[in-house]
Amino acid sequence: MNAFWPVELREGPVGLRPIRVRDQRVWQDVSRRNRDWLRRWEATVPPPPPGHPQNPRPTYRQMVRFLRAEANAGRMLPFVVTYEGTLVGQLTVGGITWGSMCSANIGYWVDQGHAGRGIIPAAVALASDYCFRTMGLHRIEICIRPENLPSRRVVEKLGFREEGLRPRYLHIDGGWRDHLVYALTVDEVPDGLLARWRGNSGIQSHHHHK
């Protein structure tokens, strides 16, 4: 069992909670609405070698079942992002490792209609503080396509360091894509990431000074 899961986290109108089977209708609505916007950033499974069958895309239920099993095994925290109680995206803490590394990575997407409101920075700050302060992880990594400027702005605003480029790192939108690696270690945020985020902008004042 995963001692750190399930958990619900909140900062003002922004919440993180476990993804559920009963989120299916809303999740599919949001995904469908954002399909074209998200296609450029979402990891895909590369085509199989010649002669191997292509695995069908998992159903929503299969995805949730997989995420839940990974969460129970302690390897993932599969959240949905909510804003004023409504599902507006997904944030997954994945690749949780202990031992001499004590690290995890974070991936996320948000409904384009809710982008730019400070929802994702708050969500990343919530998840990072939980990983650092409650779970005791040492390092968090976020990998972003160089072209994804809004996403890069999110992590730069939070003070993640750019560590370098991973060439052809993940398969996305039909090809192997370069990714920039951003990372943060716990000692770089002694007061926590939420405190830094509130100090930087705060979610309310976020729209006024771009």
Automatic annotation (TrEMBL):
It comes from the Bacteria. GO terms for molecular function: protein-N-terminal-alanine acetyltransferase activity. The keyword Acyltransferase applies. InterPro entries: Acyl_CoA_acyltransferase, GNAT_dom, N-acetyltransferase. PROSITE patterns: GNAT (PS51186). Gene3D superfamilies: 3.40.630.30. Pfam families: Acetyltransf_3. Coiled coil: none annotated. GO terms for cellular component: cytoplasm. Belongs to the acetyltransferase family. RimJ subfamily. PANTHER family: [RIBOSOMAL PROTEIN US5]-ALANINE N-ACETYLTRANSFERASE, GNAT FAMILY, PUTATIVE (AFU_ORTHOLOGUE AFUA_3G00765)-RELATED-RELATED. This is GNAT family N-acetyltransferase.
